[in-house]
Specification:
Elements (H helix, E strand, L loop, with lengths): L4 H19 L8 E3 L1 E2 L19 E3 L3 E4 L10 E7 L3 E9 L22 E7 L7 E7 L4 E8 L2 E3 L7 E7 L2 E9 L11 E10 L4 E4 L16 E4 L10 E14 L4 E17 L2 E9 L25 H4 L25 E2 L2 E2 L2 E11 L2 E10 L8 E11 L4 E9 L8 E15 L3 E14 L7 E10 L3 E10 L15 E10 L11 E4 L1 E10 L4 E15 L4 E13 L3 E4 L2 E3 L2 E13 L6 E12 L2 E13 L5 E13 L5 E15 L2 E10 L4 E13 L2 E12 L11 E12 L2 E2 L1
Parallel strand pairs: 1-15, 2-5
Antiparallel strand pairs: 3-5, 4-14, 5-6, 6-12, 7-8, 7-13, 8-9, 9-10, 11-12, 13-14, 13-15, 16-17, 16-44, 16-45, 17-18, 18-21, 19-20, 21-22, 22-23, 23-24, 24-25, 25-26, 26-27, 27-28, 28-29, 29-31, 30-32, 31-32, 32-33, 33-36, 34-35, 36-37, 37-38, 38-39, 39-40, 40-41, 41-42, 42-43, 43-44
Length: 728
């Protein structure tokens, strides 16, 4: 059967291609709004009382998108648009029949806004309907921004320089947003950009939108966006941005009593080589203000994935997005390899980045030089990505990385990919086809040095279906990437049937998600390594926002070598079939109190395992104080030995204003017996000028102590950092 599979697969792709070409139809013309011309200075205070707003372009209301597209609502929304030579402005008026019930949970920059009253603006500044910018605010003025890499891909960790202020009113809330032209990359002189706006009313789980109002559309899907006209006069000035920083820190080893006090400085320079292409130079790069990683408990024999949080690497990160269907199983360019090695920070002497667009070409290049340390030598690391929009639907691209974080070994990786997408399959459905291939060379393991894969995806509201094939050679070694399981071949597929019941005893349910996903992995000789069948016979989101789910997950694992799952507990080689069960419940995110719990139980290798995950959170009515406690506990009973693992996390966010935030984040895990706290004060003096004060403190629990409160201080660090930005 396997011998004939490739030929059948090729025939399937030909049939699918013909079906796509014959099924796509022309889309409706997008809505348009003309931005008014601002001739006077505009004060950003959240109140739309300046005369300039009278000449603004107006979107008089939004259309219900979810749950009942097109139906009338009492939430009238007005959006006004202005532009001058340097900035784009939005004025928002959000009427609410019950303003006392407006939900707000945070004032924090990039905080969790899912349960809040929010307005989102997306911009497609190049008009390619693929990549763009994401800006979101809540009724308290909290800001969240990100980079859009595709209709289902958004990186919310990017921080742009922009400003927003809000005000409560007797019948709702208002907001003013200013986005400087120098915070964006765009084609100068272009008369129009892609644009969409969305309002979310959390207490009713209601979404209102300007364009793309069907259930199959997402706000980050720029193919369904409208157009904003009158952008031709927007200028980037000389395109020069200078961001120096100065810092002072005290670091102490509390086990020896030794401490040091040091200071340092650095600078980032951004210059627009052309209006569409920007170069960023960083000297003596520092990431001391970056939030700490969230600890994870690992019950697999493979490394865990931790997302990038450092601002220098997040700028333009959407341009490095590669491949379809590989997700975290293979990332050719993983920016955490830059400046980090074997869990230790490697200081960067500097780096240069070039980002932008030239016609139908997108370019992203990154090159850094890292200092010599006790574990690495002086290191030069490079990554580059080039894509070409071959047609309205098809994008092809390539990627290259060179270097090894240890500074000793040589490594080269090259790859190519293509992606075909449409939002008009059989009228208004989403469909995509993608493929990729890669190869690595240099000082890499013996074996096959290549990999390839493909994905067919049908992500829509009623049916969400996909099929993925991917293969990773046993010698494929992306030294600047992430590949936890080389030497494997994967078949993945399945989907979800997601009906929205209308009565029939299920009026309390907003949407069901009946899921069935299969994943099968084998080695390159065809031997099964693992498989899993994830089923959700019950998965419901209620009309009031609760989530209830039950899962049945049979799976298989083959171990060719002993697996130390916990300290001193080794599972012997062999083939293991077992079934896991899960029950999950979570309250609505729009209420002041939020609770949730997940229980996994059932067989596990040669014994049994119970996993408990839970959280409780509280937010004051105006979002000034947010408290969340999270706990994970694993308890396993195996013939080879029993073990118990715990992870506790506590997070407090105090917001004096949206521009002055104090965050305290503490984590303790029983494996390392380490309690770490990260206290971070961020004061946005004005957009582009930030003061950070960070205090990190660690305690160790003695291994022979039975007292849970017996903690010994081991390290202490205080950092103060001021960064400011000048633009010309």
């Amino acid at each position: 059967m396997n011998k004939h599979f490739p030929r059948a697969r090729h025939r399937t792709w030909i049939i699918l291609g013909l079906l796509i070409l014959t099924s796509a139809v022309a889309a409706e013309p997008p809505p348009r709004v003309e931005a008014g011309r601002l001739e006077a200075e505009l004060r950003i205070d959240g109140v739309l009382d300046e005369p300039a707003w009278r000449v603004a372009g107006i979107i008089s209301d939004l259309t219900q998108q979810d749950p009942r597209p097109g139906e009338a609502t009492p939430y009238r929304t007005e959006i006004r648009v202005l532009v001058d030579n340097q900035n784009l402005y939005f004025g928002l008026t959000c009427h609410d029949p019950e303003p006392a019930r407006i939900a707000v949970h945070t004032m924090q920059r990039d905080g969790m806004l899912e349960g809040d009253q929010t307005v989102t603006v997306v911009l497609d500044t190049f008009g390619n309907r693929r990549r763009g910018y994401y800006f979101e605010i809540n009724a308290a003025g909290a800001r969240l921004d990100g980079l859009i890499a595709g209709p289902e891909e958004i990186s919310p960790d990017w921080d742009g320089i922009w400003d927003a202020q809000t005000q409560r009113s007797p019948d709702g809330w208002t907001a003013e947003i200013r986005i400087p032209a120098q915070s964006l990359r765009f084609t100068p002189g272009a008369e129009s950009w892609g644009f969409n706006v969305q309002r979310r009313v959390a207490r009713d789980l209601l979404t209102l939108r300007w364009a793309g109002t069907g259930l199959d559309a997402r706000i980050e899907d720029l193919r369904r966006a409208g157009r904003i006209e009158g952008m031709a006069g927007l200028k980037q000035g000389k395109g020069l941005s200078i961001s120096p920083f100065g810092m002072l820190w005290r670091e102490a080893d509390l086990t020896t009593g030794r401490f040091t006090v040091q200071g340092d400085a650095g600078i980032d320079l951004t210059y627009n080589i052309t209006p569409n292409i920007a170069a960023v130079l960083t000297v003596n790069t520092d990431f001391s203000e970056t939030e700490v990683d969230t600890r994870q408990v690992n019950l697999t024999r493979f490394p865990l994935f931790f997302p990038e949080k450092r601002s220098f690497f997040l700028e333009g990160s959407n341009l490095f997005s590669f491949g379809a269907g590989i997700d975290q199983d293979f990332i050719p360019f993983f920016s955490r390899r830059f400046g980090l090695y074997q869990g230790q920070q490697v200081p960067l002497l500097g780096g240069v980045k070039v980002l932008g667009q030239l016609g139908k070409w997108d370019l992203a290049v990154l090159d850094t030089i890292a200092k010599e340390t006790s574990v690495t030598q002086l290191t030069n690391l490079f990554a580059g990505r080039l894509t070409y929009d071959a047609s309205e639907h098809l994008t092809v691209g390539t990627i290259v990385t060179h270097g090894n974080p240890n500074g000793v070994d040589d490594n080269l990786l090259v790859g190519a990919d293509l992606l075909w997408r449409t939002s008009t399959f059989r009228g208004d459905k989403n469909l995509s086809l993608g493929a990729w291939a890669s190869w690595s060379g240099g000082q890499v393991p013996d074996g096959r040095h290549s990999g390839w894969g493909l994905k067919l995806d049908y992500p829509n509201d009623l049916w969400d279906l996909f099929f993925i094939y991917k293969e990773f050679g046993d010698g494929l070694d992306p030294a600047l990437g992430f590949l936890p399981r080389p030497g494997t071949r994967w078949f993945q597929g399945g989907g979800a049937y997601q009906p929205r019941p209308q009565g029939g005893g299920f009026g309390w349910v907003r949407q069901f998600n009946f899921e069935l996903y299969a994943s099968y992995a084998q080695d390159l000789n065809g031997r099964t390594e693992s498989w899993q069948l994830f089923t959700a016979p019950f998965n419901a989101h209620t009309e009031s926002g609760e989530h209830l789910e039950a899962n049945l997950v049979p799976q298989f694992e083959r171990l060719d070598a002993p697996f130390e799952i916990a300290d001193g507990v080794l599972i012997p080689p062999g083939e293991y079939r077992f079934t896991r069960y899960r029950v999950e419940a979570q309250s609505s995110q729009q209420r002041p109190w939020e609770v949730g719990a997940t229980v996994w139980f059932g067989d596990f290798y040669t014994g049994s395992l119970t996993q408990l995950e839970g959280f409780v959170g509280y937010t004051t009515p105006r979002g000034h104080l947010q408290i969340q406690v999270m706990a994970n506990h694993n308890r396993a009973f195996l013939p080879q030995g029993n073990f118990s693992q715990s992870l506790w996390q506590v997070k407090l966010v105090g917001a004096f204003t949206p521009n002055l935030i104090l965050t305290i984040y503490a984590q303790y895990d029983s494996e390392s017996r380490n309690l770490g706290s990260n206290t971070r004060l961020r004061w946005i003096i004005r957009p582009g000028t930030d003061l950070f004060v960070v205090w990190n403190h660690d305690w160790q629990h003695p291994i022979d102590s039975r007292d849970p409160w017996a903690l010994t201080p081991i390290s202490d660090q205080v950092v103060a950092k001021l960064r400011w930005t000048f633009r010309r």
